[in-house]
Amino acid sequence: MPRALTNARSLSQILRSRRFRTLAIFATVLGGALLSSSPAMANCCQIKAGGSPNANSIHTLYNIVFGIAIFVFLAVDGVLIYCVFKFRANKYPHPLQTHGNTKVELGLTASAALILVILAVATFVELPSIINPPNSDTGAASVLSASLTAPEPPSGKSLTVCVTARQFIWRYTYGAQCNLSSWADRLPYSYQEMEVPSGVTVDLVIQSIDVIHSWWIPRLGGKVDAVPGFTTYTWFKALHAGQTYLGQCAQLCGREHAFMTAEVKVVTPVQYTSWLNRQAVLIADQNYQVPELRAELIKDQQLTSNGIF
Amino acid sequence: MSTTELRRPIPQLLTDHIDKPRTTKKWLDWVTTTDHKKIGIMYLVLTFVFFIMGGTEALMIRSQLAVPNNTLISGEHYNMLITLHGTTMIFLFVVPVMAGFGNYFVPLMIGARDMAFPRLNALSFWLLALGGIVFYMTLFWKPPEAGWWSYPPLSSIQYSTSGGQDAWIFLIHLTGISSLVGAINFYVTIVNMRAPGMTWGRMPLFVWSILIYAVLLIIALPVIAAAVTMLLTDRHFGTHFFDPTFHGSPVLWENLFWFFGHPEVYIMILPGFGMISEVLPVFARKPIFGYKAIAASTIVIAFLSALVWAHHLFTAPLPVVVLGFFMLSSFLIGIPTGVKIFNWVGTLWRGSLVMTASLYWAIGFIFIFLIGGITGIFLAVFPVDWELNDTYFVVAHFHYVLMGGAVFSIMAGIYYWYPKMTGRLCSERLGKASFWVSFIGFNMTFFVQHALGLSGMPRRIYTYQPGLGWSTYNLISTIGSYILAIGLLMSFINFARSYKTGKIAGPDPWKANTLEWFTTSPPPVNNFDEIPYVRSVEPMKDIRREIEINTGVIPDYAGAEQFTRAPH
Q1: Inter-residue long-range contacts of B527-531, CB under 8 Å, 24+ positions, other chains counted
Q2: Average pLDDT of the residues in A57-63
Q3: The pTM is what?
Q4: Residue B94 — pLDDT band, cuts 50, 70, 90?
Q5: What 3-state class would DSSP assign to B54?
Q6: Does A32 contact chain B (CB < 8 Å)?
Q7: Which candidate from A65, A108, A229 shows the least CB-CB separation from B249?
Q8: Chain A window 221-240: which residues touch B at a Cβ cutoff of 8 Å?
Q9: DSSP code, position B90
């Protein structure tokens, strides 16, 4: 009992001490500065989101984890730092010769378990909105087609884009069944920059033709590996037309991994349709020009008849 | 009754002669030795050489990333550097440095005169050295560049044509056999050669952690040995285990690699946990809080560590139900890890802290490891991991666990055991200064990397564009890495200088708890003339008490009293 009293007294002494006050003021200023300036907060401590509902759900889940993390960090490291300042040999010469305390031990273990149960529940509550695509907005129906591939929105209609990875560029093929090679050649495609309509659920069919890559546009949701021999799927529904989202390959794929970038340009459904048509015309035009050019080069003897320099 | 087991309290002082040495040539003695202490020292020196090499590679990586669009290092050389850095730190530093500590201290702590198989022990050291040589010889032609995971097809013959990848495979084989031989040796030693009276419940926690380290190595290493053999036959002998064009599966490699890779994480950190569990009670001047809980949590962590590997594959083609399972199993591992942290803080609570350099590093370890543990929970939540996987957030996380966790505990261990190994004390002042510089440098380097990952910077890119919000963080991180290097260098200088000039330590400068402090510093070849009977988990405390009771004198601690002045 007397020892408990000494402790209480010294605790209040610590709370009144100059060192503690300095620390407290420093912590408050730092924390306040971080919390009040939300752009700084968003830059340092938040997941990138805002482009698509799945990214936003991941962001919500992240915030739950983040809150609990801050609490655990402050609680445990707080006690640790308190111990370091309080229980110095010169101030606290009589160590408590205890071997443990089963009740405290079990209590702390149970509370750790409880935190993890909360996190697991939160994850499974948020999960459907992250993995299940919603319907596209009404008014965007013109660009939709039925997709044979998972995942499907409830209406069964979405825009399918095949993402094909290779060292060190992304190719996008637009239209259902784009992963069937017999179809892929006839569909419009683009490299590096993907054009998508806003308000439309876009199903991505992701494949790789050489090494493992990873598709990732931070603001449009999580990443998905492109593994040769496998087809993986993800989706997004771009919320804001006029935005361009940047991303890049997230799995080491070779020497120029750093330059395997991707862009997703969000336009209105009407702009998207006209872009798609224009792209189809351009591709057809070039497909026509290439054999002509080749014939010309062979004639000039810059190429052999096999097409080799 | 209580004194009968101890007829000669400090028998080492009675050692009056040493047998004629086997050879007069010093280097020949080192090369041919089977003495666990000499092998332990060679392990520590060699692994620290590799640590310095891996650290130099890290500084080159950070220098390249200091500013956007940097052209200091090309993409090719950058990939070589990250492969060298990761492989060196894991296979040539952290895993074997723990074997070095284990070699030196396990026999001493359990009251044995050597390891169970001294010649196997020498074999495991020389295999490690050979593995390191095979790997670093690639510097003279082409180092591997597929990263330390070496995911096929990038590591296949089509995409990694150079022999560097094969050197990597042989490094895994050689260090793997080295660790397996060592692990069996530790296991047999600990199970069979404990001092009389040292039941499982009286075994030092460091010895517990080395026992579990050995078991994990025995479980995990055959898997990676098989996997790299398959990779080797894929590359050169026409098999197609991982080749998708012949219906092989790169995901098979990912599973095999991480089935080894995750237990490997605990192989690297559990002995560190053990050292912290030794250091804290000594300098808090009170018994470890919850001995049984710490020992049990080590076993539980080891068991769970074999069930969590797929949390490295959350973005790979796996069904959601599998991801859910691995999220929950990864959560579970947080509980025994949490138990350890509670018990360490519990050990400090109402202790009487003697603030030595070793304790600084140990407390720094708890502070940093907690952050690494918390960010691990972020990554275990698989939808969140979809955003964070393969970014700098992950880099920050595992450096908090391995650099801040394992390395800080290694430093705590070295400051704690240096007097035992060399017979001399380190400079405490320089040790503490080194701690503060390293601690600040470490957090500068790696704390901002969380922010880098959150703002979308993938790992392993050799350069980046300005205007993405990454430039400032990267610059801070690079400056931090140099500060960290200076901090660690201060400790290396400390160790080198104190070897000749440090104050003589005497057998037990810290008034510690375990049997290695029963013998002289450094210990004689046979460790103990007489092995005391062990009656608790703190045999030295019992012995000191008996001496004091029997003689009425508090023994002289040879100039080291300043650390042990805590009143009784």
Answers
A1: B527/B37, B527/B107, B527/B108, B527/B112, B527/B113, B527/B114, B528/B11, B528/B12, B528/B111, B528/B113, B529/B8, B529/B11, B529/B12, B529/B14, B529/B15, B530/B7, B530/B8, B530/B11, B531/B111, B531/B195, B531/B196
A2: 92
A3: 0.89
A4: very high
A5: helix
A6: no
A7: A229
A8: 221-225, 227-232
A9: I
